[in-house]
Design a protein that fits this description.
Blueprint (H helix, E strand, L loop, with lengths): L12 E4 L2 E4 L25 E6 L11 E2 L6 E2 L13 E5 L12 H5 L20 H8 L9 E4 L7 E2 L2 E2 L1 H4 L3 E3 L2 E2 L6 H9 L10 H13 L4 H23 L29 H17 L5 E5 L19 H4 L5 H22 L2 E2 L2 E2 L4 E6 L14 E4 L10 E4 L8 H11 L18
Parallel strand pairs: 3-12, 3-15, 6-17, 7-12
Antiparallel strand pairs: 1-2, 4-5, 6-16, 8-9, 10-11, 13-14, 15-16
Helix pairs in contact: 4-7, 5-6, 6-7, 7-9
């Protein structure tokens, strides 16, 4: 009897005791098809969206771009993105009208991804953010509907009559519920790969090696190489998470002791901010690569942030205070944040999914709630990387400063449209940006 060929659904997983790992795109397997009939479309990877945020804006003279394609010129803040100019939209002039009412950090951040009016005076009310709306409509077919990652903890205090929960959260599950932040790389990793969020004793990779060996026999040589590279990347992140607590650099608020008077918990937040951000960036990539999630937000820091940057030699002043200057150190910190976006883009662009790369099948939106540290929010800083599965043409500067209807929410309607989620209205916008 002829050996029956294997049919795999999009949810084909490597499995072990208490562990499951979704597979990346492979030419041998209809990874993205839910049924055998869908196998013909298996090469069409889904569109992913990641939103990266950093607070307090950027250097006032170095956030700019001009020109097109390879000839596009970038200000110094954007220098880390030079390799991605042909896959980038630099967008100027969009704004959020509701954010102008308070003119402080909280009132400019809490509705950044929704455009909703914000309540003040002790009440908490914003609007459901674009990532969570997409998680409900688009992310239901994945193990994790959305990742909500952060590198600085939430601030529960009040500033000028507005809750600073607004300046600590860009993702909102409902108008009254900021989506819980995951600050711990180990737990974010567990949520992607383990059947329960609690950390198991066994390595994720070790748990699935037997199943991976069986799969290896049924796939092409190219896919065997892809599988090896993928498993190596999972192992690398596991090992870096295990080592993340061993460095002693501290950022943010300084304790009264010169050094901690207790042992640091092994599964805590990495105290090296550079390593923390890179681990979270790697988890964004792994989530997309395995189709475990298609929606991610990564809040690199809060608006009104207290982070310090000893990894850059800039540990004498917190981020918020530094933002009120245009010093060389402020530029250095700005570039450090953009390096995280470039890092994600480079990793995604190295992963092939049929005729496109994972970056070509994604949208990476980078923004802040103000253009500069002096609360300039009449135009917001926006960069978009990726091709949305061939739906976005990069290498362009889009300038809306002198145009009507320049609501930030028009951009969100455009992004949702690329993911086949179409709404008559979102926030204060009723039509998408045609140019996007």
């Amino acid at each position: 009897m002829e050996k029956q060929s294997h049919q795999f659904s999009r949810r084909r997983l490597l499995r072990g005791l208490g562990v499951s790992i979704a597979l990346p795109w492979m030419e041998s397997l209809p990874v993205w098809g839910d049924t055998p009939a869908a196998a013909a479309k298996s090469s069409e990877a889904p569109v992913r969206l990641a939103v990266l945020f950093s607070g307090n804006g950027f250097h006032s003279k170095e956030w700019w771009a001009k020109g097109e394609g390879k000839q596009m010129e970038l200000g110094q803040v954007l220098a880390p993105l030079n390799d991605f100019r042909e896959k980038m939209l630099f967008i100027r002039g969009l704004f959020n009208a509701e954010a102008l009412k308070g003119n402080i950090h909280s009132s400019q951040t809490g509705n950044l991804l929704s455009g909703a009016p914000l309540a003040s005076g002790g009440e908490i009310r914003s609007g459901t953010s674009i990532d969570q709306l997409l998680a409900k409509k688009y992310g239901a077919s994945t193990k994790v509907p959305s990742q909500v990652l952060a590198c600085e903890k939430s601030n529960p205090s009040v500033h000028k009559n507005y809750s600073m929960l607004y300046s600590s959260h860009i993702s909102w599950s409902s108008p009254t519920t900021p989506t819980p932040l995951e600050l711990y790389p180990a737990l974010a990793f567990d949520r992607l790969f383990k059947d329960e969020a609690s950390k198991a004793d066994q390595s994720v990779l070790d748990a699935v090696l037997a199943d991976a060996g069986r799969l290896r026999r049924d796939i092409s040589t190219n896919d065997q190489r892809k599988l090896d590279e993928y498993l190596d990347s999972v192992r690398d992140v596991e090992q870096r998470i295990a080592n993340a607590g061993k460095k002693g650099e501290l950022q943010g608020w300084r304790p009264t002791l010169d050094k901690p008077n207790m042992a640091r918990p092994a599964d805590g937040i990495p105290q090296d901010i550079g390593e923390h951000m890179r681990l979270m960036a790697d988890i964004v990539v792994l989530g997309f690569q395995t189709d475990t999630t298609r929606i991610s937000t990564l809040k690199l820091n809060n608006d009104h942030s207290s982070l310090r940057f000893p990894n850059l030699g800039v540990d004498y002043m917190i981020h918020h205070l530094l933002s009120h200057s245009d010093t060389a150190d402020w530029l250095k910190v700005n570039q450090f944040f953009l390096q995280q976006l470039a890092y994600i883009a480079r990793k995604l662009d190295a992963i092939q999914e049929g005729p496109r790369t994972l970056l070509d099948n994604s949208m990476l939106l980078y923004c802040s709630s103000m253009l500069t540290g002096n609360h300039e929010a009449r135009q917001l800083p926006v960069v978009l990387l990726g091709g949305a599965g061939g739906r976005i043409k990069g290498g362009r500067v889009l300038d809306y400063r002198e145009k009507p209807d320049r609501q930030m929410c028009r951009l969100y309607l455009s992004l949702m449209d690329k993911m086949n989620v179409r709404l008559p209205q979102f926030g204060d916008a009723t039509k998408p940006l045609d140019e996007v």
